[in-house]
Amino acid sequence: MEVEWVVFDAVGTVIDPEPSVAHAYHLIGQEFGSRQTLEEVRSGFKSAFAETERQDRSPDTAGLVTSAAVEEARWRHIVAAVFPEVEDGEGCFQRLHDYFAEPAAWRVFDDTLPTLHSLSERGIRLAIASNFDHRLHPICDGIAELGSFEKRFISSELGFRKPSAEFYLAVVAGLNTAPERILMVGDGLENDVEGALSVGMKAVLIDRKLARNGHADVSGRPYGVIRSLSQLQGLLT
Ligand SMILES: [Mg+2]
Question: Which of 9, 31, 46, 109 makes an SS bond possible with 13, Cβ 3.0 to 4.6 Å?
Fold first, then answer.
């Protein structure tokens, strides 16, 4: 059956923080008196982020229920864990939170615009589905390359995070078509691929670190693997 909609994950799939999250935290942390090195900040962020992801999976958080308040609390917790030494922790959190709502904090991958353009030309409709919060709106509004997404699905607005079936069922309902006519594309095996497959959508994993000559190997897998969005075209023919 033909694919009617292609739904893209946001971070790591069509956009990425530029400079890196660690660089941004490091610079803003310094403004608030932190004297940690870039490496210390990088490693602190990595473990704090991983810790909140683990909390998502614990049974006492009612699965993957979320809201704007839950997401804000998550980021406040991460900032506090990265910068325990910063006196004005709330100020530092607010500054970082606002920073990542700015389109200028993000770059669009080189393969994003050509891919969105050629899919649109073929009559395929485009949407974005993200665990990032409402800050995705000003980013999509402020980056011309992201203008072709007809629909935005944001977990803090839907009430459930990826990879829950609830999140993906809301996507299916919002696109008003059969799940097998929807292709989810993302860089997260669990969040993007497994979640989408669980409700009957098609899925493609983008692994930008695949060897240069690596290509889609779908043998034995219920999903495709690509190393560049430009390979999507070939998968859809
Ligand atoms: Mg991602």
Answer: 9
CA nearest to 228, candidates 130, 121, 126, 114: 114
Report the amino acid identity of residue 63: G
Q: How far apart (Å, rounded) are the C-alpha atoms in residues 99 and 230?
A: 30
Residues with CB under 5 Å of ion ligand 1 are: 9, 11-12, 187-188
Average pLDDT value for residue range 28-41: 98
Answer yes or no: CATH 1.10.150.720 is held by domain 18-104: yes
Task: List phi, psi (to 5°) of 55.
Answer: -60, -35
Calculate how far, in angstroms, residue 191's C-alpha sits from the geometric centre of ligand 1.
8
Distance 14 CA to ligand 1 centre (A): 8
CATH 3.40.50.1000 fits 5-16+106-235, yes or no: yes
